[in-house]
Write a structure and sequence with these properties.
The complex is a heterodimer of chains A (352) and B (409).
Chain A lengths: L53 H4 L5 E7 L2 H19 L7 E5 L6 H12 L8 E5 L1 E3 L10 H8 L11 E2 L8 H14 L5 E4 L21 E4 L2 H7 L13 E4 L2 H5 L4 E5 L5 H8 L17 E7 L8 H9 L1 H4 L12 H10 L5
Parallel strand pairs in A: 1-10, 2-3, 2-6, 3-5, 6-9, 9-10
Antiparallel strand pairs in A: 4-8, 7-8
Helix pairs in contact in A: 2-3
Chain B lengths: L11 E5 L2 E4 L2 E3 L3 E4 L2 E2 L2 H8 L5 E4 L4 E4 L1 E6 L1 E2 L2 E2 L7 H11 L5 E8 L4 H7 L14 E2 L2 E4 L24 H8 L5 E6 L6 H10 L3 E4 L6 H10 L3 E2 L32 E5 L7 H10 L4 E4 L11 E5 L2 E6 L2 E4 L12 H12 L3 H7 L2 H6 L17 E4 L5 E6 L2 E5 L6
Parallel strand pairs in B: 1-6, 2-7, 8-11, 11-12, 11-13, 13-14, 14-15, 15-16, 16-17, 17-18
Antiparallel strand pairs in B: 1-4, 2-3, 4-5, 7-22, 9-10, 19-20, 20-21, 22-23, 23-24
Helix pairs in contact in B: 8-9
The chains are: A alpha/beta (352), B alpha/beta (409).
């Protein structure tokens, strides 16, 4: 198995060449091994909180993290905290926007609610954030209550301080759909690429509307929806299959793979099999989320129910890493404490 | 910074931290206003790509559509039925003072009067938009003189008329011009009423049944001819009888034109209608209930004697009688008092109580696209209420036109 990226001087990149299932899950976070320059103690296996901010000392770590929380609400909160820390520590500004890819559906609702709460408390601002949504139905009027434009407006945009010009959602009513898709790819390029792409997973293992059989190097394009997806979406259209749109514009698997970091939210028992296929089986275009096994930096955020089809060994391993992974959300940064945060990260390697 | 498309554009106002009455429910939503109309913020966001220019924190208040009073005879000493030289200022005074009651549109009402009065007064009360100067005038409500002698109530007997002779021509001769008229109350049992009702309806005037001894059948036929309203239900009509419900029976009649239902005014001041009767009417037909004040010139004045039409009235607390009798002579309860009393007496939802004073009168007059709602595109006439439905502020076309003292700090 080839190395997944350049090794960084202060970190060890561990790639197992064995065929054990665990190794196929990707590299372990090097920070566990304690190779950090600020540490005084010898490296040990026990996951001690050695660094206040893994971001600052290991910016180029290539990792797959599986974050497991007990319940949906905790998973949503963890994800929101992660996004919050990522944005704040990026120090976005008028010349440096944080580009965020965003999903729709019931899974991210809890996460959006928390992000809104952080904005309302004055801890987070979306003033210098640009968003790119993953997909939109074709032929559904923009003002239809089930369009993804409506979803984003009602569940996110109207509650925060993002400027409309910094939001991008594919237009499913464009005269030339493929041109609309191409233009979307260009907009992403123009914005400097996506810093963090947040996504969900369908029950059929799809990312965005990249249905089973989609090319793993696909770009933004028009897709016909699979029956599984139409069935899953029927509940938003009064249970009437005839009312569900059959086509959608979607970012490609390749488009999401281009992001510098990918975070997939997976909650609920009905997604458990898809998660299993995505991370415990091979990379397969029938389960398009599996493509992220080959992405340098992926975070899967799950609740217990979503892990029901995984091996006990896998779940135990990653739960054991939660102490370390929680360093990514604790300390939790706020734009209100910009000054404190700067001094904290350089003087206090240990958190209390 | 983003510049506007071409010349400077109208500012977008966003009212936050409030609950609004929309889609028959109270929603935790912001209210967006531009150029005097309610704006769709989603459309503004995705199509025009704009944000609000100004924000107003409503302190958790309720925002309801401005109240519409379709039966008000005067107030603050002004009597709409008095033929003065300057009726306009009287109307303007009332229009300005009722803003504090949350009323943003109204129909000045004239009681039974001689033709000279109508000829002199009507041309002086044009339809007029509201604003900082006062509530908007939607048109005049002519209550009489084509009403029943027996059920005239406080109306002067001398000036009652019939249109048996020349039907609509009699109507025109009596009133003069109908240009500024919006509603006419008449008794359908009078001969040739069907011709009159049809003629009035054809001119876009709302016909209301009241001050009448009609039985249910006569009333139903009147509705089939075009009548759509009942003037102050229960008052000045035959009482409900189980074998002949009379006009009251219209609330549950199955002989109305398909797709239409009857609207009915109710004076909910705690005096004109017993709460139990209020509840019976509301439960029988909640969609048609229209709260009216039927306020007399004594509204807003203290106890004592005042003029109403061609007669004197005596005010005592919340009650007004025809001087020297026990006949009620209109109410002096302001619209917001009526709403609160209605809510408390019927135990209905806040949404229902507010709709009875806004949406329903707008529907009666066919104005529900622009008035009586907070739907996108409607006129931004609304009222800010606290949880006990006391008026905190009144807005017309998105502009603050009245504010409570405490709120002014």
């Amino acid at each position: 198995m080839a190395a997944l990226g350049p090794a960084v001087s202060s970190c060890e990149l561990r790639v197992s060449a064995s065929s054990s299932r665990l190794s196929r899950l990707g590299t372990r976070c090097c920070c566990v091994r304690g190779a950090a320059p600020l540490s005084q103690t010898p490296a040990s296996l026990s996951p001690r909180p050695l660094l206040a901010s893994p971001f600052l000392t290991c910016p180029l770590q290539n990792t797959m993290k599986l974050i497991i929380l007990d319940h949906y609400s905790q998973a949503s909160e963890w994800a929101a905290k992660y996004i919050r820390n990522r944005i704040i520590q990026f120090h976005p500004g008028p010349d440096k926007y944080f580009t965020l890819g965003l999903p729709t559906g019931s899974t991210p609702l809890g996460c959006y609610k928390k992000l809104i709460e952080y904005y309302k408390n004055g801890d987070l601002s979306f003033k210098y954030v640009k968003t790119f949504n993953m997909d939109e139905y074709v032929g559904l009027p923009r003002e239809h209550p089930e369009s993804y434009h409506s979803f984003m407006w009602n569940n996110f945009f109207k509650h925060i301080d993002i400027h409309p010009e910094n939001t991008h959602i594919l237009d499913g009513n464009a005269a030339d759909l493929q041109a609309e898709c191409d233009a979307f790819e260009e907009k992403i390029q123009a914005a400097g690429g996506i810093e963090l792409f947040v996504g969900g997973i369908g029950p059929d293992g799809h990312i965005a509307f990249n249905e089973p059989g989609s090319s793993l190097v696909s770009r933004t394009r028009v897709k016909t929806l699979a029956m599984d997806t139409i069935l899953a979406n029927a509940r938003f259209f009064d249970g009437d299959l005839a009312k569900v749109p059959t086509m959608a514009l979607t970012v490609g698997v390749g488009t999401v793979m281009d992001a510098r970091e990918v975070m997939i939210l997976i909650t609920g028992a009905h997604k458990a099999f898809a998660l299993y296929k995505a991370i415990e089986e091979g990379v397969n275009h029938m389960w398009t989320v599996s493509a992220f096994q080959q992405h340098p930096r992926t975070v899967f955020v799950c609740d217990e129910d979503a892990t029901l089809e995984l091996k006990v060994k896998t779940v135990k391993y990653f739960k054991g890493l939660m102490l370390v992974h929680n360093k990514l959300v604790d300390p939790l940064y706020s734009i209100k404490e910009k000054e404190t945060e700067k001094s904290q990260s350089s003087k206090k390697p240990y958190s209390d | 910074m983003r510049d506007g498309k071409g010349a400077s554009r109208a500012p977008v106002l966003r009212f936050t931290n409030c609950r609004i009455l929309r889609g028959r429910r109270l929603l935790r939503e912001d209210l967006w206003v531009r150029e005097g109309r309610i704006l769709d913020p989603e459309k503004l966001f995705f199509e025009e790509r704009l944000v609000a220019d100004q924000q107003r924190d409503c302190g958790g208040c309720l925002l309801a559509p401005g109240f519409i009073d379709v039966q008000i005879n005067g107030g603050f000493g002004v009597d709409f039925s008095q033929a003065t030289e300057d009726v306009g200022s009287g109307v303007a005074l009332v229009a300005q003072r009722i803003l504090s009651h949350g009323v943003t549109s109204f129909c000045p009402t004239l009681v039974t009067s001689p033709p000279e009065v109508y000829h002199k007064v009507l041309p002086q009360i044009p339809v007029k938009s509201g604003g900082p100067h006062g509530a908007g005038v939607l048109g005049v409500h002519l209550e009489g003189p084509f009403i029943s002698r027996e059920k005239r109530g406080a109306h002067p007997e001398a000036y009652l008329r019939s249109f048996e002779a020349n039907a609509f021509h009699d109507v025109l001769a009596t009133y003069g011009s109908l240009d500024n008229v919006r509603i006419v109350t008449l008794a359908p049992e009078l001969g040739r009423s069907h011709e009159v009702i049809r003629a009035l309806t054809a001119r876009g005037i709302c016909v209301s049944l009241g001050h009448s001894v009609a039985d249910l059948q006569v009333a139903e036929e009147a509705v089939q001819s075009g009548a759509t309203f009942i003037t102050h239900l229960f008052n000045a009509m035959l009482p409900f009888h189980h074998r002949d419900p009379g006009i009251v029976g219209l609330l549950t009649s199955d002989r109305l034109p398909p797709g239409r239902h009857i609207f009915y005014g109710m004076i909910s001041d705690g005096i004109h209608t017993n709460p139990a009767a209020l509840r019976i009417a509301h439960r029988a037909h909640p969609q048609g209930l229209v709260l009216v004040t039927d306020a007399v010139p004594a509204l807003g004045l203290g106890n004592g004697r005042h003029t109403l039409g061609q007669q004197e009235v005596e005010v005592d607390g919340l009650t007004a009688y025809v001087a020297g009798t026990k006949t009620l002579s209109g109410s002096i309860a302001p619209m917001d008092v009526c709403i609160r009393h209605f809510l408390q007496a019927t135990g209905c939802s806040v949404e229902s109580a507010l709709e009875a004073a806004s949406l329903h009168p707008a529907q009666l007059l066919g104005l529900e696209k622009l008035k009586g709602t907070l739907d996108f595109g409607a006129d931004a006439d609304f009222v800010m209420l606290d949880d006990s439905l006391h008026v905190q502020a009144t807005y017309i076309s998105g502009e603050l036109v009245w504010q409570a003292e405490e709120a002014r700090q």
